[in-house]
Amino acid sequence: MLEIKNLVKRYGRNKAVLEGLDLKVEDNSVVSIVGASGAGKSTMLRCINRLVEPTSGSITLNGTELVHLKGADLRRARRKIGMVFQGFNLLDRLTVMENVLAGRLGYVNLYQAITRRYPQADIERAFVLMERVGIAQYANKRADELSGGERQRVGVVRALMQEPEVLLADEPTASLDPRTSEQIMMLLQSLASELSLPVLINIHNVSQAKTYTERIVGLRHGKMIFDGVPADFNKDALDAIYGGIEAPDDATSNAPVEERAHDPA
Amino acid sequence: MVDHAQKLADHVWQRYNAKERLIRYAVLLVTLMVVVWAVRDIDIFWPWVWDAPNQISGLGARMWPPSAAGLGNIVNALIETVHIATLATFLTIFLALPVAYIAAQNTTPNRACLWLGRFILVSSRSVNTIIWALLFVAIFGPGVLAGILAIVFRSIGFIGKLMGEAIEEIDRRPVEAMEATGASKAKVIAYAIVPQVMPAFFAIVILRWDINIRESTVLGLVGAGGIGVILQGSIDTFAWPTVATILLAIILLVLIGEAVTSLLRRKVL
């Protein structure tokens, strides 16, 4: 179970990006986080695995407090948090297999990592997962020779190689074409139930969020303003989350009147 | 404004306006003045300049035909020259890479290391190989060791600076992904940074090896080993036919070096 309590993130002296966020995710559930650019979705996800340092608050994963971990403890905790990225973040010049095995870097020692002598169990797990998502035939290809959808599958398998207790996906489909992004969403959904793994997905595409996840969390200006099942996510919720975002400073600009009419404020 | 509009209407177009033209003439004038000042100040003894064609033909006559005597010595010295360049380049790799790592903005552990790294790179580069060689000949005595160290100390700045820039240009995203897996710093470097800078590394090292071959041909002039030692010796004893042979041999060596490095570059990249 992942539990976030009163999470605050402030960059320098600016206005807080996250203003006291609370979120509880039970095991085996897929949660999508929606919100306009700059709402704090990405920051929230990165606070969980501490790629971004939270300013204050508490994040616990299965009872372990993550916010104050340092050094080796932090690395040990990160092994249990898989992450899938918008830009795939693969090691382009390395092979698909090397990319996948990189998910084990937190478990193997430096010598094994550099000489690529991974334990046989890891290699077997890699093949099983690659077969599951349909990229096993590319094991010895360079990662940059694959198509977008295939590359994201490599990213997913790399995250799963960590044997994670939670999977974070930061706009995993935003760089993909509509059809491929549906496939990736379906994959994340089925993997979550197969591995009984909580999955948090930042996503822009509201209809995909409604189709493939069982819970939607809406963020706006660092605050949670919606939390419920897709059926409850109606026009009002959508307006509350995205409304008026296109013209945030229209009070000072001379935007046409008909555009201002959409602003709920 | 009206004038401007009029010009547009008449399709008159000039690249520079009056002020810009004035500035351009002023820059030209200042440049010419500096050149004239420099030529007057360095005190050239003009009769020697007018005598140069005679001297060239005289020297040419004394050098021709190049002497084949001592060819064995020359070849040995050339091989020694290449050895100096190769060993020095190899040694430099181990010294320059840590410096590159701490001198790159995105990998340096802290500000102090960043400035230390940059200080090492700048001091290495601002001293010419020959000056380094003079220094090391004074410390270790004449010989190959002084030559190797001189080239190493000059090359650290070159390889370190270019590798540092290569590190600064890497894509940050794989680094982030590797950190997210719980990998230690060393593993992040091995997986996310090293593969990205590998092509630059080979290109830079091959280029520096090529430069080092050329630099090591002159080291002998200050007693730091290589072909330059016998070149200096031949000049001192007015053995002009031998000097000619050595100069031809150096040109040949540089050409071979050029060919080998361009071949390597094609193979590696």
Structural write-up:
The complex is a heterodimer of chains A (265) and B (269). Chain A contains ten helices and ten strands. By secondary structure, chain A is α/β, with parallel strands linked by helices. Chain A has one domain (2-242): P-loop containing nucleotide triphosphate hydrolases (Rossmann fold, 3-Layer(aba) Sandwich). In chain A, strands 6-7-8-3-9-10 form a six-stranded mixed sheet, sandwiched between helices. In chain A, strands 2-1-4-5 form a four-stranded antiparallel sheet. In chain A, helix 5 packs antiparallel against helix 6 and helix 6 packs parallel to helix 7. Chain A is globular. By secondary structure, chain B is mostly helical. Helix content of chain B is 80%, strand content 0%. The model of chain B has no long low-confidence stretch (mean pLDDT 91). Classes of the chains: A alpha/beta (265), B mainly alpha (269). The interface between A and B is medium-sized, with 29 and 20 residues. Chain B: Keywords: Cell membrane, Membrane, Transmembrane, Transmembrane helix, Transport. Chain B: Its main location: membrane.
